[in-house]
Automatic annotation (TrEMBL):
Cited PANTHER family: PROTEIN MGTC (PTHR33778:SF3)
Full protein name: Protein MgtC
Family: Belongs to the MgtC/SapB family.
Membrane topology of this protein: Multi-pass membrane protein
Main location: membrane
Record's GO cellular component terms: plasma membrane
Alphabetical UniProt keywords: Cell inner membrane, Cell membrane, Membrane, Transmembrane, Transmembrane helix
Length: 238
């Protein structure tokens, strides 16, 4: 009976508008993710947007602006745990960051809708869609362009495979050659391999190099009679 007494038609219609707006905008964002076959697709984006809108709308109904502010803070914290669930690490690669960011933005869209800021919710949804679609050609163009090692901040490693009993000699030789090339090593580690071989890995202090200079260091190392293999690798910085 209390539910009938407390029923407020204008407030109910306002809630309907907020949730329907969140549902429609979440569908637009999620449809793009579903088309791209991402981990979090249509239904996830819709539920995130509608859920955020429902919580913020409830805060507005109970405590007005103060309640909406408090609930929004918890929505932001809670969506972080959901986003972490779609991020996966595969070796040196991390996948799902874009999907997690999209879910985070979907929650923001829902929060705007729940706070009765419909125009702002539509604007944010449009920007999310633009970020996931219109920027894709630019991302592909950048990824296809040749990497200029002198302009890229990254972690560089020189790797040498030698018999276990020659690892000390290899460490000294790597340090000497890198110093001559003006690329001092930040640290030198040894990794055990099969057949009594070890890999000596020198991590450079420099975050940008001339590829030809490291190629020359690798060739000099590989020319040594006790060196099985020598190369250098690059890892992009976080």
């Amino acid at each position: 009976m209390n539910a009938l007494v407390s029923f407020n038609l204008p407030e109910f219609i306002n809630t309907v508008i907020s949730l329907v707006t969140a549902f429609a905008l979440g569908t637009a964002i999620g449809a793009e993710r579903q088309y791209r076959q991402r981990t979090a697709g249509l239904r996830t984006a819709v539920l995130v947007a509608v859920g955020a809108a429902a919580f913020v709308d409830l805060g507005m109904r109970l405590e007005h602006t103060r309640g909406a502010i408090q609930v929004t803070a918890y929505v932001v914290s809670g969506i972080g745990f959901l986003g972490a669930g779609v991020i996966m690490k595969e070796g040196m690669n991390v996948r799902g960051l874009n999907t997690a960011a999209t879910l985070w933005c979907s929650a923001a869209v829902g929060a705007f809708a729940g706070a009765d800021l419909i125009a702002e919710a539509v604007l944010l949804a449009a920007m999310v869609l633009a970020g996931n679609t219109l920027l894709r050609p630019l991302v592909n163009a950048i990824n296809r362009s040749p990497i200029d090692a002198t302009q890229t901040e990254a972690t560089y490693e020189v790797r040498v495979t030698v018999p276990a009993e020659r690892q000390d000699q290899a460490r000294e030789l790597i340090a000497e050659l890198l110093d001559k090339a003006h690329y001092p090593a930040r640290e030198v580690e040894t990794v055990e391999r099969a057949d009594d071989l070890v890999e000596v890995v020198a991590t450079l202090m420099s975050t940008a190099v001339e590829s030809a200079e490291l190629d020359a260091v690798a060739r000099t190392l590989e020319a040594q009679p006790f060196v099985q293999h020598a190369t250098w690798t690059i890892r992009t910085s976080d």
